[in-house]
Design a protein that fits this description.
Blueprint (H helix, E strand, L loop, with lengths): L4 E5 L4 H12 L3 E5 L8 H10 L4 E3 L6 H10 L4 E4 L6 H6 L1 H22 L3 E7 L10 E2 L10 H22 L7 E7 L1 E3 L18 H9 L6 E4 L11 E2 L1 E3 H15 L8 E7 L5 E2 H12 L5 E4 L10 E2 L2 H7 L7 H14 L6
Parallel strand pairs: 1-2, 1-4, 2-3, 4-5, 5-7, 6-15, 7-12, 8-11, 9-14
Antiparallel strand pairs: 10-13
Helix pairs in contact: 1-2, 1-8, 3-5, 5-6, 7-9, 7-11, 9-11
The protein binds nicotinamide-adenine-dinucleotide and uridine-5'-diphosphate.
The site of uridine-5'-diphosphate has 14 residues, from helix 7 and strand 9.
Length: 349
């Protein structure tokens, strides 16, 4: 296949900006659509600075069908990587309709615009949250979806919609059937090793790693460790942390797989993107202290509502079918987070 053009929805965001960088470096042409509701154009300016390559940016909302139609008319898109969405679990519990409208309706508008333009290859940002609380702590793709919050349900719904449009094409033996990879991310952390792009959360971070690094740099006084009485070796919660650069490389592997035999008659397949190994909150804190030489002020606090004790990926299918596995270590994740934090104490501001 000749050089592909990839439309990246949500490309200015944390994961999207890292994906744009890897895509440009791998030789793809990149078009971004983002309404900048949770990001800044500066991330894309830096991606172009690092790579020395340019991308095309459309400041638009994926719910705006007319805007998407123009993009598909102006650009010869081969594949869409669909990152655009709202992602805060707590906020989704307070504003469920906003989440369903943005994430589910927005995806439907995008899928319609793709169908209209006969662009039928997609890599979708799903999440380990679609699993809910399965019987085993190591999640396998065939486990049933049972999301326990509105955010997770938006991901499960979009997965179902994509599976159904793909099945319809297979039943109709469509000439150009949908080819879709649903990538279920575990816990992405870290930053590009240039320290020029990274995660820039609005306000006080919800997630562990940005919180720890803001404590380390003195922006926040103290980390609350949410629970030390879980049935885990040190009592704190265990998650499968994955370096954001490893994660976005999984997307490039998925784009390649969409061209291959596995997807040749049209298919919609889910893959876990995780390391297959978990770290506890206290292990993250001590790795941060060891790698950066900073002391993290923390206290043990009550459990956070809705948190599970432990889960991590079974990443075997992604290795077998996409030829993907993580390459970076926890020390890389910490060192790259810290480089981004110290070079950009105010994020992109
Ligand atoms: P992010 O908020 O940094 O990026 C999302 C981007 O989408 C932002 O730039 C935002 O402005 C844009 N956006 C949102 N709604 C839009 C709309 N209607 N139209 C156009 N642009 C819109 O989040 P991220 O961490 O980069 O996550 C990217 C994707 O990965 C999301 O779909 C998220 O749900 C999913 N995901 C993230 C994580 C994680 O921990 N970061 C884990 C699992 C899945
Ligand atoms: N966590 C914590 N303090 C914080 C934020 C998170 O102890 O300020 C814990 C949380 O309880 C979980 C782990 O860190 O065990 C990862 O939480 P995060 O919000 O980063 O990811 P998720 O809950 O989505 O897996």
């Amino acid at each position: 296949m000749n050089k592909q053009t990839i439309l990246v929805t949500g490309g200015a965001g944390y994961i999207g900006s890292h994906a744009c960088l890897e895509l440009l470096q791998a030789g793809f042409d990149v078009v971004v659509v983002d309404n900048l509701c949770n990001s800044k154009y500066e991330s894309l300016a830096r991606v172009q600075q690092i790579t020395g390559k340019t991308l095309k940016f459309y400041p638009a909302d994926i719910r705006d069908k007319a805007a998407l139609t123009v993009i598909f008319q102006e650009q010869a898109i081969d594949t869409v990587i669909h990152f655009a969405g709202l992602k805060a679990v707590g906020e989704s519990c307070q504003q469920p309709l906003r989440y369903f409208e943005n994430n589910v309706y927005g995806s439907i508008v995008l899928i319609e615009a793709m169908q209209q333009a006969n662009v039928k290859q997609m890599v979708f940002s799903s999440s380990a949250t679609v699993y809910g609380e399965p019987p085993s702590t190591q999640y396998v793709e065939h486990f049933p979806m049972a999301a326990v919050n509105p955010y997770g349900r938006t991901k499960a719904m979009v997965e179902d919609i994509l599976r159904d449009v793909s099945t319809a094409d297979q039943l109709a033996q469509a000439e150009n059937p949908w080819k879709i990879a649903l990538l279920r991310y575990f816990n992405p952390i870290g930053a590009h090793d240039s320290g020029l792009i990274g995660e820039d959360p609005n306000g006080i971070p919800n997630n562990l790693m940005p919180y720890v690094s803001q404590v380390a740099i003195g922006k926040l006084a103290q980390l609350s460790v949410f629970g030390d009485d879980y049935p885990t070796p040190d009592g704190t919660g265990i998650r499968d942390y994955i370096h954001v650069v490893d994660l976005v490389k999984g997307h490039i592997k998925a784009i390649t797989a969409l061209q291959g035999d596995l997807f040749s008659g049209g298919a919609c397949k889910a893959y876990n993107l995780g390391a297959g190994k978990g770290y506890s909150v206290l292990e993250i804190v001590s790795a941060f202290e060891r790698v950066t030489g900073q002391t993290i002020n923390y206290k043990i606090a009550p459990r956070r509502a809705g948190d599970l004790a432990e889960f991590f990926a079974d990443p075997a299918l992604a290795l077998k079918e996409l030829g993907w596995q993580v390459e970076k270590s926890l020390d890389d994740m910490v060192a790259d987070t810290w480089a981004w934090q110290t070079k950009n104490p105010q994020g992109y501001n």
